[in-house]
Amino acid sequence: MAKVGTSQFQGYLIGQVIGAAVGALLLVVDDFAGFYYRSGYVDVWGYITLYPISLATILILLGIGGLLQALYAAIQSLQAKDEASPTFLKENARKTMLGAGFTAALAGVGAIIFIISAIINDYGDWWFGAGFYGAFIGGLLAALFGKMMYDQIES
Predict the structure, then answer these.
(1) Residue 66 sits in a domain of what CATH number?
(2) Which of 12, 37, 70, 148 could bridge to 96 as Cys pair (CB 3.0-4.6 Å)?
(3) Could you tell me the residue range of the domain that residue 60 belongs to?
(4) CA nearest 65: which of 148, 130, 11, 139?
(5) Interatomic CA distance for residues 31 and 132, integer angstroms
(6) H helices within 30-129, ranges in order?
(7) pLDDT tens digits for the chain (155 residues)?
């Protein structure tokens, strides 16, 4: 089987790396979402972030795992240089699409659940944080670049 050089896919691979790395980093360092409401004389501020042992923490860790899988597959392809087989590149592009797409879908479902919760609990103010945008947009971009690369590789 003929080897394929990764130089023709370098832009797609760099896009996958940047989307996955920035998305994972923002999930780790910033909030997924936050809210504010007033209960009597008490102002209540809350954030959905990496707290110890909560469902939100588990879901955020799953999202980080999906983006790290996408990042690993893209870096593996990027390091292959001109020694890669089309099958290897296609498989890594597929892994990137699955990992990043999973995280974007998880962020989307998490956003819907958060919005419903904010409406039910009558939060006065609520917002999405950089963690949501990183996971959702970074996941979509990494998956999109993986799909574009996948479609151009001839097996």
Answers:
(1) 1.20.140.150
(2) 70
(3) 21-152
(4) 139
(5) 7
(6) 55-79, 86-120
(7) 556 666 788 899 999 999 999 999 999 999 999 999 887 888 888 888 877 667 888 889 999 999 999 999 999 988 887 677 889 999 999 999 999 999 999 999 999 999 999 999 888 899 999 999 999 999 999 999 999 999 998 76
